[in-house]
Amino acid sequence: MTNKYYEFFCPVKVIAGKAALEHIPYELTGMGAKRPMIVTDKGVRAAGLLEPVIAACEESGLEITTIYDDVPPDSSTTVVRDIAGIYRQEKCDSIIAIGGGSAIDTGKAVNILVSEGGDDIAKYSGAGVLKHPLKPFFVVPTTAGTGSEVTSVAVITDENKGVKLPFTSSFLLPNAAIIDPRMTLTLPPHITAATAMDAMTHATEAFTCMAKNPLSDAYATAAIKKVSQSLLKVMDNPKDSDGRLELAQASTMAGIAFSNSMVGLVHALGHATGAICHLPHGLCMSLYLPYVLEYNLETIREPLGELLLHLEGPEVFAATPASRRAEASISAIRKLRDALYKRCQLPRTLKETGKVTENQLDHIAEMALDDGSIMFNPKEVSLDDARAVLRRAWA
Amino acid sequence: MLAKRIQPMVFQARRYYVELMFQVMGRALQAVSEVDENVQNEARALPDGFLFEMMVMPDGSRLIVEHTGQGRFHYHGNTAPRPVDLSIQFKHIAHAFLVLSFQEKTSVAFANDRMLVDGDISYAVRMTRVLNRLESFILPKLIAQRAVKEYPADLRLPKKLISAARIYLKVATNFVETARA
Ligand SMILES: [Fe+2]
């Protein structure tokens, strides 16, 4: 197609591997930052994940000025305002967000307030509102899934209005993402599985949806390969730090892929299910992925077939006739889900979650149709289509 | 400035075409919302008085419609009575032209970063579906298939719209040829 056009952008410095945390002080001082604030949640603190970061900084003579460790799972405008207040009071000059999606999004939002001024984060909601770079901002992910460390989006709940405010700007991207296997080593099995499947879904949707492009494809396929090769190894041996690092890198790569080429129906259904039934995001991703691929099958036969190489390796790929590869890719994903179910009961159907009732399906379908991700699904989705996919995912 | 001296005719034609198509779409949105149940159902989820804008950055042509209630749209021309609730903005007139001359699907244009959404994404998704439906109305099937992801199976064209579409289509094909030459 000669009309093909795409954009690809990822200015985040990735600092990954053994002893990566020890690079934080150097990176901070390199940007003239002397008074960093840590933004994190209670879980991260309780798991002892702050210590190596603090120790790494102190050894280099860099004091962490203050720590906010009370980010809720669903961050709000009030929390953001409070943290910005502490930041100003303590005269901080940079932010290190340590945690999963919520801590990272909160860090991004706080950075808007402390850089742009004011107390009302809602004012900056929307796309392209920010016009200047923000304060030095670093992210240390502690789950391997969301990819938030490389996305230019943050979502914060406005409690008073009961709405989720989206913020989009390339200035929200951190200056660096620090991927250290120590940070995910203690992640419990079901979270390891669900978040890895989130990364798998990011990569698969990035590779099969409308905005796919050669650069995001490269990241997506590499991420799929890493998850396929390492997830079960880590499930069987949680202390496998090489495997943990592979998953963490896969998550970042999948994040780079989807932030440049978007996601599709799996995410639209997952967002709706999360909002209505309060199921974790990664779980929903794992659950819907094969059903949506089956729904999109005829539109994505070629790219999906290509993924078999990265899911199952060259031998299986070569042994599978080209016309059967797309189906074989779906089977490979189903096989992985079965293996995860065996190890940590990660649900494969809505019924298996025990938290969804059949009469909620229509509501989920309606809500999914209003989700932004549905715009990039390769096949147009009607309400009936969404219902049909949900029924297949039921049991 | 230099570009202007080299190809003034093509640029003028493109600007004129985009303005014209915005007018066509504005009127067609209003007309379709009076006859098509599908569009009405989509529109009903929008708040009454909801103002939708499509514009060319930085400050070029625009079209503004209002949801006046019960799934009906009212076309306001190119001026809004108050700040708009949702704005879909083409980054450049060339991109508006690609979409409005049906060389690039609306959803592809989104995927290709041709345009930005300012406002609630869920409303943008809804308006994209309305625009898809509209495109299949005002265009003959062959061209509409290029403009939307899937041509609706249940589409019955009101006579009035068919004849209108023919006229506009003539304009459209002429311009595509001029611009490509
Ligand atoms: Fe996700």
Annotate the secondary structure layout:
The complex is a heterodimer of chains A (395) and B (181).
Chain A: E1 13-16, H1 24-30, E2 36-39, H2 42-46, H3 50-59, E3 66-68, H4 77-89, E4 94-99, H5 101-116, E5 126-127, E6 137-141, E7 153-158, E8 163-168, E9 176-179, H6 189-208, H7 214-236, H8 241-261, H9 265-277, H10 281-312, H11 314-319, H12 325-344, H13 350-353, H14 361-369, H15 383-394
Parallel strand pairs in A: 1-9, 2-3, 2-4, 4-6, 5-8, 6-9
Antiparallel strand pairs in A: 7-8
Chain B: H1 2-6, H2 8-35, H3 37-44, E1 50-56, E2 62-69, E3 72-75, E4 86-90, H4 93-100, H5 106-111, E5 115-118, H6 121-138, H7 141-147, H8 159-180
The structure holds fe (ii) ion (FE2).
Overall domain count of chain B:
1
Tell me roughly what share of residues is in helical segments of chain B. Answer: 55-70%
| SSE sequence of chain A, one letter per element | EHEHHEHEHEEEEEHHHHHHHHHH
Proper CATH architecture of chain B? 2-Layer Sandwich
Order of helices and strands of chain B: HHHEEEEHHEHHH
- Distance from N terminus to C terminus of chain B (CA atoms, Å) equals 21 Å
Largest sheet of chain B: 5 strands, mixed
| Structure annotation, total helices of chain A | 15
| CATH superfamily descriptor of the largest domain in chain A | Dehydroquinate synthase-like - alpha domain
Overall 3D form of chain B: globular
So what's the overall shape of chain A? Answer: globular
Main sheet of chain A, how many strands, which sense, barrel?
Answer: 6 strands, parallel
Low-pLDDT segments, ≥5 res of chain A: none
Strand content of chain A: 5-15%
The overall strand count of chain B is 5
Q: Return the CATH topology of chain B.
A: Nonspecific Lipid-transfer Protein, Chain A
Organism (chain B): Marinobacter guineae
Protein name (chain B): SCP2 domain-containing protein
InterPro entries (chain A): ADH_Fe/GldA, ADH_Fe_C, ADH_Fe_CS, Alcohol_dehydrogenase_Fe
GO molecular function, one term (chain A): alcohol dehydrogenase (NAD+) activity
